[in-house]
Each structure stands twice: as structure tokens, then as C-alpha cells.
Amino acid sequence: MFRRAYSTATANGLKKTPLYDLHIKYGADMVDFAGYSMPVLYKGQSHIDSHKWVRSKAGIFDVSHMLQQNLKGDDVIPFLDKITPSDFKASKPWANQLTVLLNQDGGIIDDTIVTKHDDDKNFYIVTNAGTREKDLEFFKNESQPFDVKFEQIDNALIALQGPLASKVLQNFTNEDLSKIYFGNSKIIKIPGFNNLDIHLARGGYTGEDGFELSIPKDVSIEFTEALLENKDEVRPIGLAARDSLRLEAGMCLYGHDLNDTITPVEGALSWVIAKNRRDPNVNKFNGSSKILGQLADRSLVKQQRVGFTSKGPAPREGTEIYSKEDPEKKIGVVTSGSLSPSSSERINIGQAYVERGYHKSGTPVLVKIRNKLRDATIAKQPFIPSNYYRG
Amino acid sequence: MFSRSLLRSSSATSRLMLNNTLKLSFRYQSSLIGKFNKESLINTYSKGPIDLRFTEDHEYVAAHPDQTAFIGITKYASDAIGDVTFVELPEIGDKIDQGDVIGSIESVKSSNDIFAPISGEVIAINEQLNDNAPLVNSDPLGDGWIVQVKVEDAEQLKELQNEQEYEESLKQDA
């Protein structure tokens, strides 16, 4: 079979994903993202065009820079029980679980999607690009007492996202996609590509219906271009819109909205802590005494992740937040913020950490931009209704 | 990022984006400065002649014989910023000194300071931008003007670049 020869680094030393040549062909502006040369915008589409396209049609994102691994062995469950607050014993095969990797202090090392495959000895795990080295070191250290083995998967990973994603993909497979619901995975066959096996996970990072597809890299460009032939439905979309889409969907960007000093309770991710793992006498996981302590007594939570909205200039990462009653009193800081491109009223949205007491939706606060205090309001996330396929 | 300072951007992502956009969008395009829109107020305000000047921050100053001048940004700058979503304007009556931050131009992901290219007093602001910020993209040297100032020191104008010098400086940047 024909094999494409890859060069794996650009002239300026950035790593290339298997789809690099496709990005260039489609006129992408490439930027350094976590050491990879990644597309930020494609020719002929502005940021807002790209964003709205994904909300109304379908977009393809290259997320091959993320780390995909198979996790195997007799001790996968006890290992995951130690490093996450989730219950993987109870999770169903081929169900995707969003969880967090925890350090000894209960801080979040990374957020991740973990999928049990056929049984308790076989899992698939996807972690972030920006934390690759740290995560690998963490897995290596944490897994030492356990019978677990990590295998890096050298595939391309693309996300096909938007209300037309399913319609487009259905043309490539005999698998009935209407039977695969949000949050589930399956290996599907692609007859037009020699019965190629693709690992499909229904979900994504935009709030829309869609899929993350793990594709052998030799055929990843051909397959992605085949999807893109549906020009009226599918376009390649870059990092610019990826960020504004995820922000509207209320999702965290690790390294901005989460870091390794933040616990899941502070990060407003208490829901990832499984119900049956909340008894501090029975269950131990990394940082469990601190995390479960915060769950039981919220006064131990000093700051908490919230959403907010405002008008006028957009609060950005680092923008300080002040109390409305006492404008001298700093109560928090913005971690992500921008205009919401889907909003016809030009509302700004974002995420921030604020002191408890100011965290309730509807609380008026002040944000300091160019030395002027301006009104903002703590708000519920997501900022747009999610559009997942639940059958 | 612009090597000079109009686009002091507040987020790392956008800095990268700008840098990149600029490199790719530049070479041999004729429309870097933008088309001077003769139908717009920046031209029709007086019978002229108009002294059109540029700064290293990619701003323009269109000075009229009555010692007032319209200030905006060039197409080179507005292309680099991308979809303009919001423009923060100064207030009428504000006294500005050359180099002061007098407002900002935002895209979805970046905030970019507007620096006063000359000293003076703000005598008009383009209120159309409150409802239609994308005018800065579609007609930067026209209906997308930002403020009009009463020029304090005509000598400052002479020190700014003329059209040819500005175009030359863009070529060297690329």
C-alpha cells in the first residue's frame, strides 16, 4: 500500500501533526500551540465566520496534538481509582468519562476523557497537548506499584463538530450512527477506505453534536479531505473558533481555567467525583481528604470557578474582578473571556475565579479594564444551550 | 505582533495570530493601506487639501485645512486584528497627548490599544462604531474613522510618515 512519507517538524522546530500538509493546502495561518504547528484560521473565513459555521453546519478540527493512549493491565481500575475521583469499575464499556487527574494535594494535573473498552483491563485515554510531558511523567510515577501498561497511539485525531456532523459521517459508514449516543464510543468501519477501522467517540468540545475520530495517520489526510468534499456542509476550522466555541459551551481550557493548584471542587467540577467515592473513610484517591473535606464543608472553598457576562470591552484572562458594593475590594480574576460570537446582542462571556459568596448566578460584580470599573454579572454556564445527540 | 505598538494585545493567542496573519497577508498586495473613501466624512468634511499621514502604529491622520484631523487605523492593521467586534472611543472634549491610549479596538480574542498619533482635543467621535464596529474592517480609511481632533501642534503632523514612507515601512516589515 502507498505510504506517505512524513517530515515531523517544521523549519522552526515545531512538531507537525499528520494533517499538517492539509492545513497548508487549505490556506491556514499556522501558529505555535503547545510546541505544534497548528491552524488558527483558514483562508477565506474570519473567526466569526468559522464559529458560526460550526454552530450551523459542521467543522473539522485537527486535534492530533492531543495525547492518545491505550491503558492495559490487571490493575487499571485500582490505578484509575488512585489518580481520579471517578468510578471506572461501574462505568459501562465504550462509555466516555470526563474526569481529572489529581496530584497528592488534590490539584488538577489535567482534565481527560477516559473510555473503558471491552473490559476492566482495557481503556483508552486522551489528555491535553500542552501537558504532554507532565502527564507522561505523572503516569509513569503513579503507575509504578500497579500492573498497568501505557501504549501511545500514533493516530491522527480529528473532531467533526456541528449539527450536520452526523449526516456527513453517515455517508462513509454502514454503522447506524443514530444508535450511538452522546458520550459513547465505538470502532466503526469505513468501506470506502479498505474497511478501515476508526475509533469514534460521540461528543466534543463545542457544545454541538459531533465526533472525535482516531484515524491511522497514513490515511488521515485522504479521509479528512473526503469529509471536506462536502463543501456546503463541512469546513476546516482552526484554533481561534475552537476557543470561542468551547467558551460558549462552558468548557474549561486547561492551563487557563484549571491548573494543578485548583481542586475539582474549586474548579466547579464536583460532578466528576463519583457518588460512591465521597466517603472519606472508605475511598482514598490522590488529595481525597482535601477534596472530600471541601465537598462536606464549602466554607473550606476560598475561590470557585464561575461564568460571567458583560457588555462593552471584553474582560480577558487576567482582568481583575471587584465587589459591586465595595469597589475597592478585589474578589477575583478572569481566566478566559471574549465576545460571544453567537450572541446577537454582542454579549461578552467568560470564566473567572471569585471568592465564595460572590459565586452565585446573578451576582453583580465589577471588572477593571483599562483602569475603569465596568459592570459584569456572574452567570450560569453553558452560555448557549448544548446540542448533544441523546437519541 | 506588530513590532510597533498599536496592537498591544492582551492575550497570548491573539499575539500569535496577529503575527501570523501579518506575515501571510503582506507581500505584494496593493491594498495594505486601504482605499481612501472619498465619499466619507474624512474627505467631504472640507474642500481640502488633505494631508494624509501615517504612524508606525498603523494609524492614519487625515488633516484638514481648519487644523482638525480624522484618526483611524489602516487596512493593514484592521486585517491583522480580524473581525472588529467593539471599539472603545474617547469622549468629546478629552485632551489627548501624543502616545496616550485613547481607546481600544477589539476582536473576538484580542484587545488592541489605540494610541494618540498627535496631541489635541477630541472634537468628534464616530458614534456609528457603537452599533457597527465592523466598519473598521470594511472601510478603515472612510466610514470606519475613529475620532476627529483639533490639532494642537501642526509640527507633529510633519514628523509622521507620508503615504509612500508608510508603504515602504510595511515592505520592510514583511
TrEMBL record, chain A:
It comes from Wickerhamomyces ciferrii (strain ATCC 14091 / BCRC 22168 / CBS 111 / JCM 3599 / NBRC 0793 / NRRL Y-1031 F-60-10) (Yeast). Residues 304-383 form the Aminomethyltransferase C-terminal domain. GO terms for biological process: glycine catabolic process. The glycine cleavage system is composed of four proteins: P, T, L and H. GO terms for cellular component: glycine cleavage complex; mitochondrion. Belongs to the GcvT family. Its EC number is 2.1.2.10. The glycine cleavage system catalyzes the degradation of glycine. Substrate binds at E212. Its main location: mitochondrion. Gene3D superfamilies: Aminomethyltransferase beta-barrel domains (3.30.70.1400), Aminomethyltransferase fragment (4.10.1250.10), Probable tRNA modification gtpase trme, domain 1 (3.30.1360.120). This is Aminomethyltransferase. The lineage of its organism: Eukaryota, Fungi, Dikarya, Ascomycota, Saccharomycotina. InterPro entries: GcvT, GcvT/YgfZ/DmdA, GcvT/YgfZ_C, GcvT_C, GCVT_N, TrmE/GcvT-like. One of its GO terms (molecular function) is transaminase activity. It comes from the Eukaryota.
Automatic annotation (TrEMBL), chain B:
Binds 1 lipoyl cofactor covalently. The keyword Transport does not apply. Keywords: Lipoyl, Mitochondrion, Transit peptide. It is found in: Mitochondrion. GO terms for biological process: glycine decarboxylation via glycine cleavage system; protein lipoylation. Residues 68-150 form the Lipoyl-binding domain. It holds the Pfam family GCV_H. The modification N6-lipoyllysine is found at K109. InterPro entries: 2-oxoA_DH_lipoyl-BS (IPR003016), Biotin_lipoyl (IPR000089), GCV_H (IPR002930), GCV_H/Fam206 (IPR033753), GCV_H_sub (IPR017453), Single_hybrid_motif (IPR011053). Its cofactor is (R)-lipoate. Belongs to the GcvH family. The H protein shuttles the methylamine group of glycine from the P protein to the T protein. This is Glycine cleavage system H protein. It comes from Wickerhamomyces ciferrii (strain ATCC 14091 / BCRC 22168 / CBS 111 / JCM 3599 / NBRC 0793 / NRRL Y-1031 F-60-10) (Yeast).
